[in-house]
Amino acid sequence: MLDTGPPDTEIVATLRALGAATLGESGGHAMRARIRPAWAGATVCGPAFCARNTPGDNLAIHVAVADAPAGSVIVASVGDVPELGYWGEVLTTAAQARGIVGLVIDGGVRDTDALRSHEFGVFATTIALLGATKREPGEVGGAVTVGDVVVQSNDWIVGDADGVTVVRAGDVESVLRAGRARAEKETAMFAALRAGQTTIDLLSLDTSPIRRTNLRQLPGSRTAK
Fold first, then answer.
1. Where do the H-state alpha helices sit in 55-111?
2. CA quadruple 118, 123, 129, 130: dihedral positive or negative?
3. Nearest C-alpha neighbor of 104 from the set 56, 58, 45
4. What is the widest separation between alpha-carbon atoms in the chain?
5. What is the Cα 104 distance to its own chain's centre?
């Protein structure tokens, strides 16, 4: 059942702080790299509200903006016609007025300067000028596949400069635990690296496949004389 209550603010804050990369290495599901910020500095975090669109049409996106609970991230699939502007300033204005916090779409958007000025987090595959039709069948509130990841409405979406990660609604607590543990481990690693240790030492890497050539002549190398 789709949760229509406001998102848990503590979960939102923790997911944002950990970030897409850490969460993607801690049990979350990273979308493919083609899903990237539509403007520099864009971020997004919240539960998904999904919209499956007929390729070339964005009627389902318009319905999703009207139906999605406040705090939601619209997650939209558009099939095999990605190079259209399925989203722009009009939908951004409508979405913000209803408390929607962002968009992740496996297709194009436009009006990127306006998206930036609105500080509305959008993640897309491309920027495209031409718009979509608004009359074809679709579905909202169910599931979509975006960035090669199946997303169910109510799954958690985290997007930042590194990309977008999906955290299953039923896995959020375990992913948060794993994410916190990974972040603490990395903090300790940073301190050790600053103290002079190497990633080879800390990660117990087997360097035997790597041929070292002429290290004795390189200033500063461990084997330099």
1. 59-67, 89-97
2. negative
3. 45
4. 74
5. 8
Kindly tell me if the per-residue pLDDT of 205 is higher than 60. Answer: yes
**Domain check: are 58 and 112 in the same one?**
yes
* Dihedral angle sign, alpha carbons of residues 185, 187, 188, 194: positive
pLDDT of residue 2: 61
Distance between CA atoms of residues 147 and 152, nearest Å: 13
Question: Which of 150, 171, 192 marks a domain boundary?
Answer: 171
Smallest Cα–Cα separation from 171: which of 33, 23, 20? 23
Tell me the per-residue pLDDT of 136-187, one tens digit each, with 9 for 90 and over: 999 999 999 999 999 999 999 999 999 999 999 999 999 999 999 999 999 9
Same domain? For 150 and 211 the reply is: no
Q: Do 16 and 107 have their domain in common?
A: yes
Q: Which domain holds residue 88?
A: 9-171
Specify whether 73 is located in the same domain as 158: yes
One domain, residues 136 and 189:
no
Within a domain: 224: no
Cβ atoms within 10 A of the Cβ of 145, count?
14
Pick the closest to residue 91 from 72, 106, 113, 109 (CA basis): 109
Q: Taking Cα atoms as reference points, which of 27, 91, 19, 30 lies closest to residue 60?
A: 91
Q: Are residues 94 and 156 in the same domain?
A: yes
